[in-house]
Amino acid sequence: MDTLIQHFADTIRAATEKRRPLRIRGGGSKDFYGNAAAGEDFDVTGHRGIIDYEPTELVITARAGTPLAEIEAAMRGHGQMLGFEPPHFGGSATLGGCIAAGLSGPRRAAAGAARDFVLGLRMLDGRGTDLRFGGQVMKNVAGYDVSRLMTGSLGTLGVILEVSLKALPLPQAELTLSCELPRSEAVELMNAWAGQPLPVTATCHVEKRLYVRLSGAESAVRAAAKKIGGEEVPNAAEFWSGVRDHRDLFFSGDGPVWRLSLASTAPELGLAGHQMVEWGGALRWLKTDADAGSVRKVAREAGGHATLFRRGGQTAGAFHPLPEPLMRLHRRVKQAMDPAGVFNPGRLYPDF
Amino acid sequence: MQTNLADFIRDTPQGREAEAILRKCVHCGFCTATCPTYQLLGDELDGPRGRIYLMKQVLEGEAATEKTRLHLDRCLTCRACETTCPSGVQYGRLLDIGRAVVAKQVPRAGLDKLRRDTLASVLPRPALFNPLLGLGRIARNLLPKVLDDVVPETPSRARPWPLGGHARRMLLLDGCVQPALSPATNAAAARVLDRLGISLVRAPGAGCCGAVAFHLDAQDKALDAMRHNIDIWWPHVEQGAEALLFTASGCGVMISDYGHLLAHDPAYAERAKRIAALACDLGMIIEKEKSQLKQILISNPPRGKFVFHPPCSLQHGLKLKGRVETLLGELGFELAPVADSHLCCGSAGTYSILQPEISVQLQRNKIAALTASAPAQILTANIGCQTHLQSATRLPVRHWIEAVDDLLSEVH
Amino acid sequence: MPVDLERQRAVCAALRAFMPARNVLFEREDVTPYECDGLSAYRQPPMVVALPENESQVCEILETCHAMRVPVVARGAGTGLSGGALPLGNGVLLSLAKLKNILAIDAPARTARVQPGVRNLAISEAAAPHGLYYAPDPSSQIACSIGGNVAENSGGVHCLKYGLTVHNILKLRVATIEGEIVELGGGGLDAAGYDLMALLTGSEGLLGVVTEITVKLLPRPECAQVVLAAFDDVGAAGEAVANVIAAGIIPAGMEMMDQPATLAVEPFVNAGYPTDAAGILLCESDGTREEVADEIARIEKIMQDSGAHLVRVSRDEAERLKFWAGRKAAFPAVGRLSPDYYCMDGTIPRRRLAEVLRGIAAMEKNYGLRCANVFHAGDGNLHPLILYDANDPGQLQRAELFGAEILKLCIDVGGTITGEHGVGVEKIDSMCVQFGAAELEALHALKRAFDEHELLNPGKAVPTLHRCAEFGRMHVHSGAEKFPELPRF
Fold it and tell me: How far off is chain B from C92, nearest CA to CA, in Å?
């Protein structure tokens, strides 16, 4: 393995010297996500395998090229899981890509985001230097939290080599209920539930139906189901993985798909098109032909931001533009980690 | 904390006590959380930890200035910090020592001195205070707003004092300002205890417990007042008074400290200790007799909503946090919860006169918290808080014993 | 280091241009009480203390300091235990204690927008009428400020289940050293661009000054219960912890205290801890009634099976709070055992606990100092409290060496030197053991991205390579004094 890392480092140094950009890639399952990155493909899938998994410590450490499915299978074997329920968007998804994209699935609102589960990582920066931040313990505040900065940075700050993640026990029981309800009422209900001590671990409103997942001790799930009402959904696991990986019918078609991250209580968007609501109201998927400016205006006014998740012919930048002082900080952070600007230039913002 | 006390005080009793207290402080800062002035002002120098530091500097030989004196003056001596402190720092004791040293180093002058001297002379002496209070009430309409608030309204009338003659006797600390400001309180205490088969005895000639002078930099004057009281009370103690009972918790804290404060006076040390041991808050006496009282109240239980304001002297000074509330609850009073009940109301003895700005802010906050549940009456256990709060609300503010007496008076 | 009076005058004058004079302190008498935070072993009176009353004053102070190249140390409630708010003799101490307003509570959205000086507990108190609370609960929650919590990424006894500060905040308003405001995070659960909010959290005031925080509020669990279990052997207690986790239970809190710690706390709190046990475990379950009943029964059984000689379940809320009160008062209560204590904060893999405690016991003998241990057992965060007397010459130095050796042991078993208290000034040399030169250089580069002239809390959290080189040499001749530039008492 060390020779492979050495090879990675050499490639980076050579690229830095020649100012030749690299396009870091794992399984390619999220190629569609973000802006198109320029550069020569830099494949990390060869760097794979679980390094350390200690179920009673609730920590798993694996190499970036390890398929996500392999990690999840190993954890399931010990009655554990990745709490943020990461989307795969295909069988080839790797751990590195999962962390670099920083996306989280239906359990996000209840359990936390990808970055919340990252305990530490090993990476190569823009000089090809091998760095380790964080660790394999639950709590660690030594040094800045570079591991969490790396999460969701879309490979623009460095090449992730290894990641340590916090594990969670699989719930003893899980049950999904559903009922027909208009969207605005569903959002209200999601927020009301979140304000009560209920074991809700996922919510979704799509095609006029509200879905809610309960997880925990058998008795607790049963008691909560009684309180909440609705009819039990068969094959619920299939439904939630469809939502997670965008296999749900809602996502079919070739048009643009917007991802709006808003305050959970944000009112109706006032934009034409189809919507799916997740995360207790804090995530709204929108299929619309509205122009990027109006979508982003709506998102900003609702306290959030809008990502052009699937371009579908739209030409706008994938990510919500930042105010200048904040953009300046971004440029400086990029400069600190990747001074020659070789990693995934343009993938996040055209400036870098 | 590390200490290095200066020569002038290191080997004195005060120096030794101060050092022991300072060394217990680990500088954790928990005390700032419950300090009323820190919560208002947000300056380390106006919280217990900062004041401890200021005093430490002086005790270690740095010269004090008016500023240190000001920050110490701003302390209400509510001792909420002592309740919060997990290390057992006796902040109140340290402050007594620190204030005395600072007062000597930075003597007061002008209006400040005049005000303090006047308060120290007038308040403890009913012969002077009562006529002045009368004048103040007459002049209310002529007074500027700040002083107007300080002069209390005419109090409720006292019910007749019982005849007494029970075998069980307790001595009453009459207090200096209370008989004039709230004559009903002690009468109510005497009447309730009479129903419980206890006679409350007054000792003519006893004066102020010493607290007023003690907290106005006149500690020698205060010690003289204590000695005088001991002389007056002692015959009653010898005749078998069960307890020295007080209805104002502010006075109670002072008397409980007699033993400590006179420990170095060979002529009084023993008796002072005994007096301090006999001192007992009215609530704790009633607590012991509560089953009898509950029996009587079965036929006339309390009605309406009340709130209780626990005086700092009761909850932090005497460390009786929650006891009177529990007792009242058991007697059938419906007490609504009050936010931040650990915070001082801003009365704090003469504080309302000496630090009016902070006092008024605390008063406002306290009234807001007490009236949030729209109660019919505010009950408390110290004359200082009672008059201070009464000046800012139309709701009746009374000693809780009066509310008990109301009920008993209707049961024959 | 003597104060540069001319510079002091100039800085005060510049600050007084936009702040009332009473909020600019500079005389020795006034600034000395600010010379340390909760770690009183390190002291340094600041050149100037600035007490801004609002965000725009904070920005102006920073802008002024930036223009004049004056270093700035931000301070919240001053309860930190790593000297993160230790002032600089040539710098401004920026106290945020006057920014103490809860600006808004949005009950339906379950958020609170607060100023940095708001006390941690005050947020939960304000949210209580809505059935909500703020989850991270460091032991100093009664006094510590939320701004300080963000700077240190504070945890608490419930963080295994509910996370650290970083997991419970949604948005920060941050003043940069140039005095500009940037908003990090947002109204939703994520924000566009890099996760600078996560980077700022726990950066110990080196990257920016937080002026406003939006925190997440959670519904109060329907009920909670604690199991108190006593063990004759701390190793067995450690086993019990692993067994709970292996059973698929994530307790709301899981705390261990050894005998010296329970002996310190019990007389003050009367929490009902058995003081004859070698170690006690507190294990809390919260959630719905059904969930708690189920989990408590399982935990009770696991404790018994793991060899506890006493297992008690809190009977009511009052008893539950009492069990916790002892744990929360543990640090300062040690002040009753000894005039001074030195608190360490390593995190270790749980399975190495018994070994680490044995190591510490051996060090107690070597250094001739006692040590009480408090342990966030669920997440492996160990707080050894080294007892010493600062008035006894040499004891502080022995305590520091003792502490450094404990941290080295933590790193050796695969842990870290600080789980939640931060590096501050106290553990800065141990950073040289935990990180290599390359990592430290990367951290410095990030620092410069935010603060080119290194004016924000310089000298804390991340050591210079030069310092590490010095430390390496000192390490060889162990016994040499650390921080020669700091005044010693």
Answer: 15
Predicted complex ipTM:
0.97
Of C180, C188, C206, the CB nearest to A304: C188
- For C32, the closest of B27, B31, B53 (CB atoms) is B53
- What is the H or E stretch that residue C123 is in? helix C120-127
Above pLDDT 90, what percent of chain B?
75
| Phi, psi for residue B26 in degrees, rounded to 5 | -105, 10
Q: Any residues with CB less than 8 A from the CB of A174 and at least 6 apart, and which? A: A201, A213, A214, A215, A221, A236, A237
Q: Which residues of A touch C242 (CB under 8 A)?
A: 56
Q: Is residue C296, in this structure, part of any structural domain at all?
A: yes
CB–CB contact B30 C334 (8 Å): no
Asked, for residue C228, whether it belongs to a domain, the answer is: yes
The reply to whether C431 falls in a domain is: yes
Q: How far apart are CA C99 and CA C53, in angstroms?
A: 6
Spatial distance between the Cα atoms of A177 and B110, rounded to a whole number of angstroms: 78
Cβ within 8 Å, pair C193-A145:
no
What are phi and psi for residue B364, nearest 5 degrees? -60, -50
Q: Using a CB–CB cutoff of 8 Å, tell me whether C40 touches chain B.
A: yes
pLDDT-flagged residues of chain C (< 50): 475-489
Residue pLDDT, tens place only, A67-80: 999 999 999 999 99
Does C165 lie at the interface with A, CB-CB under 8 angstroms?
Answer: no
The position carrying tokens 């570079």 is A146
Q: What residue type is assigned to position C69 of the chain?
A: R
In a domain, C86, yes or no: yes
Contacts 24+ apart (CB under 8 A), B131-135: B133/B180, B133/B181
For B266, other C-beta atoms within 10 Å of its C-beta total: 8
Residues above pLDDT 90, as percent of chain A: 95
Q: Which of residues 220-259 of C touch B (CB under 8 A)?
A: none
Total count of domains within chain C: 4
Which residue from C188, C194, C111 is spatially nearest to A284, judged by alpha carbons?
C188
* Chains with ≥3 CB–CB distances under 8 Å to A: C
Query: The domain that contains C148 carries what CATH number?
Result: 3.30.465.10
Structural domain of residue C143, as residue ranges?
Answer: 105-219
Q: Give the number of beta-carbon pairs within 8 Å between B and C.
A: 120
Instruction: Confirm if A10 and A128 have CB atoms less than 8 A apart.
Output: yes
Instruction: Flag if C199 and A146 touch (Cβ within 8 Å).
Output: yes
Element containing residue A50 per DSSP (H, E): strand A50-54
CB count within 10 Å of CB C477 equals 7
* CA pair distance C435, A134, nearest whole angstrom: 10
Type of residue at A26: G
Residues A187-246 have pLDDT tens digits of 999 999 999 999 999 999 999 999 999 999 999 999 999 999 999 999 999 999 999 999
Predicted model pTM: 0.93
Average of per-residue pLDDT values in chain B = 90
Tokens of B218: 């006149």
Contacts of B33 in chain C (CB under 8 A): 77, 119, 121, 142-143
Enumerate residues 52 to 111 of chain C having a beta carbon within 8 A of any beta carbon in chain A: 106-111
- CA–CA gap between residue C245 and residue C197 (Å, rounded): 30
The set of residues, in sequence order, having a beta carbon less than 8 Å from that of A278 and lying 6+ positions away, is: A106, A108, A109, A202, A203, A204, A243, A284, A285
Asked if residue C305 and residue C369 are part of one domain, the reply reads no
| CB atoms C449 and A323 under 8 Å | no
Among 3.50.30.10, 1.10.1060.10, 3.30.390.80, 3.40.50.970, name the CATH number for the domain at B7-105: 1.10.1060.10
Tell me if A322 and C192 make a contact (CB, 8 A cut-off): yes
3-state secondary structure of B342: coil
Any idea which fold B296-409 has? Answer: Rossmann fold (3.40.50)
The DSSP letter of residue B35 is -
Both C47 and C132 in one domain: the answer is: no
Percent of chain B with pLDDT over 70: 92
